[in-house]
Structure formats: structure tokens, C-alpha cells
Amino acid sequence: MTLPDLSIVVLVALFVLASVLPRFHLGLTALSAAFLLGLIAGVPSDEVTGFFPANFVVLIVGVMALFATAKVNGTLDWLLDRLLGLVRGRVLFVPLVPFVVGAVLTAIGTLPAAAVAIVAPIALGLATRFRYSPLIASVVGVTGILSGILSPFAMYGIATMQMSGDLGLTGSATLPLFLGALVAGVVICTGCLAVGVLTGAMPRGRVGAPEVAVPGRSGAAGDDDAEQDGPGAGGARAEGTRSGDAGRDGPGAGGTGPDGGGTKTATRVGTQVATPAVRLLTLATMAGVVGLAVGFDLDIGYLGLTAAVLLHLVLRLDANATVAGLPWSVVLLIGGLLTYIGLMQELGAFERMSELLTVQGSPMISLLLLCFIAAVVTFAASSIAVFVTMLPLLPPLIEAGLSPVGAVLALALSLVLPDVNPLGITGGLLLGSAEPAARERLFRHLLIYGLVSVVVAPPLVWALFGWW
């Protein structure tokens, strides 16, 4: 057995053990496996350590620290209440908020990883608040991000048009490319919500829209009902619920203070009070992080970390509480896996996978095989790197008669749809944004979804878009 074959067998064994042993930590074991495989392959341990994704650690710690700070001072829960007003209280439409936000961010040029860092806490926060499936929240939110990847301002769209001459694309091709990805995203989003309704993972009905509070307003009748039936305590209420009863005083929403008073403009957090001024400062800081990341291509992880530190100093918050709440287990999980996968790439394991999947055939069959290879490789690698690497393989197929727009769409969607899996930065940010008690289950669901996507996505997008 060759070293690439051995590395693939070990990776499969790790997944099997994670599936059958409830207390098995995949990331911890992956680090050990990388060390042992490195010994067998003659790769020094310092080179193995070099595969550890330090950039991922900075990204997830920085972004999660910023959003944890916003939650501690009450701003994040207040923001989630405001977002409820955009969908007029219909729980089924709540996941569409991060979907639209993600699509817009990517379409205007935000890097997918940065967009996920922004959308993931919102999507999973809404799922926790309104008691619907974290898996649906994850898939719908990330699918929104993927819907904008082929816009002329997005990285995928730019990379495609840089090769437009070789691919036979004209300037007018930017619109069908963008619309194709958007249509695919809308279809997936609709399917997820439909499945959620049929299985009960998405509650039906409506919750009351949050009211804009005024200083000194006393908690009126119905506050007790809101406490029991609000979106943070039991999901959606039936049609006809009084506006304002639900969503005002749910857990963490910033309702009455600990003294029992009815002031709706401040949330007591330790010795701090989250006044409107505090919320405005926090939101302005978060907006500044997004603006600098999108407009100046600065690292959103370091930006988030710096913003969190500034908020701690200005608002005199307890930084230890934020640090203690960071998803360190997720960092170890994804960091360990990516270290092992980096060693696999060094040993040529993914080239070996490509050899096993490659056969001779017609242009359409060749495109289908290329889509499968892209889906398999991107499952544990950077999707944009895989896309840029495989894009030069399309010109011979296009010369043989394939539609250039259809070929690009099929390839791009085949490698981005499995991106929700928990083995990369996208999955790490999703897991880090979920409630701690839900992370293990969400990891398994995302892993299953990713594996199914590797099998289902390539033939599906090939059949739908290969002829465009």
C-alpha cells in the first residue's frame, strides 16, 4: 500500500471511529494521526506542525470574540429582535434574513470566508432564538453566500472572466453565470425550508414583532406570556398572537432589569448596562469591521479580535467571560483535521483520488467526472483554490462541444455545495456559532450533509446546468 492510499484509509477510519464512539474527539486524534503518518512518511514533526491552520484559529477566535462581546452587552439579542420585524413575525421566513445578507455580501465582492464569519452568528443565533433546526439555519445561510459567488465582483466570477478567452466566454456571460448560481441557491433554500416544515424542524405560525421600547415604560400585561411563549422559550405562536407579547422579554433579549423594573432600553450585564448608546457603539464597531474587511481586504479575524478588545476596554466588560465562551473544542477539531489533510495533500493523496475517478469518455461524461473530483477534493480543501486549479481543465471540453456557461456553473456549484461540511473554515465558523450543547449533533449533521452533497450535487448540477 502506498503512502497516499494509507493516508486515505486512515482518514476513513477516523470518520468511522467518530461515528461509532460517542466520546471520540476527531480533531485530537487527527493531530496524533498526522504525527504518526509523518513518522512513517519521513516528514519531520515541525513540517507537520506547519500544516496547522493558524489563520483559521485567528479567524474563528476573532469573529467569535466580537459576537460574544455583542451578546454579553445585549446588542446581539436586540439585533435579532429587530431582524424579526423584517419578516413580520413569520418564523418560516426568519432563515431568509441571513440568506439575503450572505448573497448580498458575496455578490459585492466579500470573500466567502469573511461572509460566513458575518452570517454564521446571525443564522445560528436566530435558530436558537426561534427554536428551529441549526442544520437548516446553517445550510440556508451558507447557501445564500454561495448564491452570489459568480457575480462579476465576486472572486469566483473574477477568476472565471480572467480566463474568458480560453473558456469562450463573452462579457455578456456574467449575467447568466450570476443568475445560474442565484437560481441554484434559491432552489436549495426552498427545498430546505420545505423539508423543515414537513419534518417539523421548522415551526409554523407567527411570533409577535418586537416593539420599540420607550424609557420608563412599565412591563404591561402579557409580559409573563412573552416570557413563557416568546421565541426564546418555545418557538412560534399561533396566528392572532398580540403584537409585542412575544420576542420582547425572551431570554437574553434585553427586557426588564434584575430589579424587576420595566425599563426596556437597557439590559443589565454584571455591573454594566447595555444602553442604546452601548448598542450604537457595538453596532458601529461591527459595521466598521465589515467595512474594513470588504472595502480594504483586511483580515476579518484580526479586525474582530481588535474590535472585541476595544469594546472590552471602553465598556469595561469582563474579557475572561468572552475568552471562556470561545469554541476552543471546535478550533481543535478543525485545526487537527486540516493539519492531517495538509499532510495528505503533501503526500499526493488527492492526486491519487483523481486518478481513481478519471476515465475516458464523451465531453459531458468528462465534465461529470470533473465535477465529482472537484466535490471530493473541496470537501477538505479550499474551494476557491480547487476552482482556480480545475478551471484550466475546462477549455478542452468546451472545444469538444460543451457550453462554456454550463460547464463553469456545473464545476463551480459542484465544489461549493459541499462547503457546508464541518471539515473546513465554513463548518468551523458554523459550529463555533452554535450553542455548545448543539455542537456535537450539528457536527454529525453537517458531516452527513457534506458527504451526501459530494454524491448528489455533481450529477444534479451537471444535469441542470451542463447544457446552458
From TrEMBL:
<feature type="region of interest" description="Disordered">
    <location>
        <begin position="212"/>
        <end position="267"/>
    </location>
</feature>
<feature type="transmembrane region" description="Helical">
    <location>
        <begin position="321"/>
        <end position="343"/>
    </location>
</feature>
<dbReference type="Pfam" id="PF07158">
    <property type="entry name" value="MatC_N"/>
</dbReference>
<feature type="transmembrane region" description="Helical">
    <location>
        <begin position="92"/>
        <end position="123"/>
    </location>
</feature>
<feature type="transmembrane region" description="Helical">
    <location>
        <begin position="178"/>
        <end position="198"/>
    </location>
</feature>
<feature type="transmembrane region" description="Helical">
    <location>
        <begin position="135"/>
        <end position="158"/>
    </location>
</feature>
<feature type="domain" description="Dicarboxylate carrier MatC N-terminal">
    <location>
        <begin position="6"/>
        <end position="148"/>
    </location>
</feature>
<feature type="transmembrane region" description="Helical">
    <location>
        <begin position="364"/>
        <end position="388"/>
    </location>
</feature>
<feature type="transmembrane region" description="Helical">
    <location>
        <begin position="51"/>
        <end position="72"/>
    </location>
</feature>
<feature type="transmembrane region" description="Helical">
    <location>
        <begin position="289"/>
        <end position="315"/>
    </location>
</feature>
<feature type="compositionally biased region" description="Basic and acidic residues">
    <location>
        <begin position="239"/>
        <end position="248"/>
    </location>
</feature>
<dbReference type="InterPro" id="IPR009827">
    <property type="entry name" value="MatC_N"/>
</dbReference>
<keyword id="KW-1133">Transmembrane helix</keyword>
<keyword id="KW-0472">Membrane</keyword>
<protein>
    <submittedName>
        <fullName>SLC13 family permease</fullName>
    </submittedName>
</protein>
<keyword id="KW-0812">Transmembrane</keyword>
<feature type="compositionally biased region" description="Gly residues">
    <location>
        <begin position="249"/>
        <end position="263"/>
    </location>
</feature>
<feature type="transmembrane region" description="Helical">
    <location>
        <begin position="28"/>
        <end position="44"/>
    </location>
</feature>
<feature type="transmembrane region" description="Helical">
    <location>
        <begin position="408"/>
        <end position="434"/>
    </location>
</feature>
<feature type="transmembrane region" description="Helical">
    <location>
        <begin position="446"/>
        <end position="465"/>
    </location>
</feature>
